[in-house]
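Minutes, methods subgroup
Present: GH (chair), OT, SY

1. OT presented the first of two proteins processed in the latest run. Sequence and structure tokens recorded below as shown on screen.
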Amino acid sequence: MFETKLSSVAFIDLRKMTGQSTPRVHSHRQGHSVCSWTNLRWILLLIFVTIIMIQFMTNFTVYHTKIWKDITNNIFISNNGDSMKSDLAGGKFRNNIGNLSSMLNKTKEVGSLTQLTTAKTLAKTHQTLSGSSVVTVTTKPTVPVPVMKATPSSPGNEKGFGMKLCPPIPPGLQGPIKVDLNDQISWDELHKKYSELEAGGRWWPKTCKARSRVAIIIPYRNREQHLKVLLNNLHAMLQKQQLDYGFIVVEQNQPLKFNRAMLFNVGYAEALKKYPYQCFMFHDVDLIPENDKNIYSCPDQPRHMSVAIDKFGYNLPYFSIFGGVGALTKEQMLKTNGFSNKFWGWGGEDDDMSDRVRSNGYHISRYPKEISRYKMIKHGGDKGNQANPDRFRLLQQAHRRFKTDGINHLEGTYKVIKLDDRKMYTIIKVDLSEQAVART
């Protein structure tokens, strides 16, 4: 203490001797202390902000990792944005989805980027659980069973009314199945094999209420052997899927060129006169499914069923295709106005329907190709079904005709000349009027 005072006095005396002003030593030290304290506060604030940011990023990373881990474990997302369920055994999928939804809700507090990811993921998750959109996805060694949602129905003559719903995942599905291509089997043999069928090829589960009422509509002419093969395979598969279903075979009378799309429309209209169907499978007679997990039900989006056909190396020929086998609800048929009636001969009608689907705000959904595999029965060219030379012109003008060319202008364009509820299917033979169609 004494040394410090002495040094200060000596310093002041020296300044006086040289004529310099005496500095305010105490004021200088006071300013230095204030400055040091200010810097310290900024340093502490910076450390605090850094700690908060580290904690924020850590939480973000943890939540983000958990989210996508569960997503990739349960849902495989394809390039076109559609989804497919997995890990369903023993209800594990639904439990995981519940946990996933809980975690996604928590992440809303993390930041706007996470909220955006959460919203999109929840939308796809809800779409998946409702059975609405299931499409081509990343290949996995084990392909899960799609969940089938219950389609709302009104009391009436639908089968199973008042009973509990069948399980969302039908029991007993095995995945890949052996396709029986024996076309020499007789109708009598088929009748004995499927003796439990009701007239018109109708069947429904007897222990629960089916989740969907499905009409399989088949355009037909001169393909009896193919029809037997298809019915022999499909009846067995659809019963395992616990569907309330029936077969409507629409046969076009000679001699006009074959009009596949218009026969689909006629089959749809006539099927609704027989039973309150909700879902319609528009099915070529020569395509046989190879996987019983390819459930014949209708989601919230029109579904292209025949994704992978052996003729095309089990690959999708092009993304917008809607040919072979397609599924639409009654509401979707009404909104799209069904198929065009103007395609006489081969080609173009599928692409026209694809345009109708997409133009009305829908997208084409698909099962993964491991599930939606089909064999095509080999056959030669069909007489009366030559390539349609007007198909390209019709496709160019398609958007002009959507509202006037379809199921809303069927009246007066066809005549039912035969209707027979046979053991394996209902046959509806019709005359089509090209002149009446041209006037629509």
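2. SY then presented the second protein from the same run.
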Amino acid sequence: WILFESAFITIPPENTVKQPQLQTVYPNKRKTVVTNFRDVATTLTRAPTHLLRHLLVALNTVGSIDPQGQLILRGRVTATVLDKVLLNYVDTYVTCPDCESSSTTLTRDQQTRQYRLCCECSAVKVVPCIPDGYCLGKGKIVAEEQPVVVCES
């Protein structure tokens, strides 16, 4: 008997997202600017404030989004570190671990649990909430409420 291993190749779904590259600029020694931040959040189909909150807590720094959609961070953060944090975000909050699709949505229930719902395979997974961080002397970071998006069936 001959077993054809090549017949059982898993084909990745069409909705996989390639991790976008963050374009960083260093206007001075104490500031990092990500010029395409809003475009990256749109590509990942996540609210810019959710991605911002994850980056600020992971990098333990202070930052904001300017009117042009650029992320301004206090301190010099290398592109390699930003890419690792973004990859962690994509793995945790965007990509479905079952079918590797990026066609997912985030929802929240009454008990403040956050779920990642896959629109391709209907898998539901509890994802960790981003802990509250503190800006130095400015109080809590407060993210906007996430809109609930329903998958098209």
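Chair's summary of item 2: Residues 122 and 136 are 41 Å apart (CA to CA).
Next meeting: continue with the remaining queue.
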